[in-house]
Amino acid sequence: MAIQKRYNGSSDGVVNVDRSRADAPAAKVISTGIGKHPTAFKITGGATFVPEMGTGGAVEAILRTMQVAATTIAYQVDTAQLSVLVEATGWVDDAALQAALVALGNRAADANVPVTAYDFTALVVSSASGIKLA
Length: 134
Prior knowledge:
Strand content: 15-25%
CATH topology of one domain: Alpha-Beta Plaits
Shape: elongated
Number of strands: 4
Order of helices and strands: HEHEEHE
Helix content: 10-25%
Mean pLDDT: 77
Low-confidence stretches: none
Number of helices: 3
C-alpha cells in the first residue's frame, strides 16, 4: 500500500470527525475506531472493587447506571479505581454521574436491589484526566 506524504495539516480533523477542533481541549481524545466521541471516567473513593466483580456486585451496578446515558466500550477494575471508557456520553458532567452513583447508596439495607453490601456514597467521579493507558 502506498503512503501519501503530508506536508501540512494535523491528524485532528482527519480522525476525530464528531468534534469541532475549535472547542476541543488541548489533550483531546482522537478516536480512530470508535464511532462517537469517547470519554474516560475514573471512579474512586469507595472500598476495593476487586471483590465486587461478580454478578450483582458493585461493578455491575456502576456499569448499569453509567449505561443509562452512555455506551460502555471498555472498563478496567483495579483495587482502588474503576476506569471506564464510554462513547457518546449523555452525562452532563462528572458531578451528574457521581450523583447518580452516590444515589445507589448503601445497598445492604435494600432487599430489592441485587447488589452486595457495597457503600456507594463515597464514590468520586473524574473525567478530567482523559485516557492515560500507561
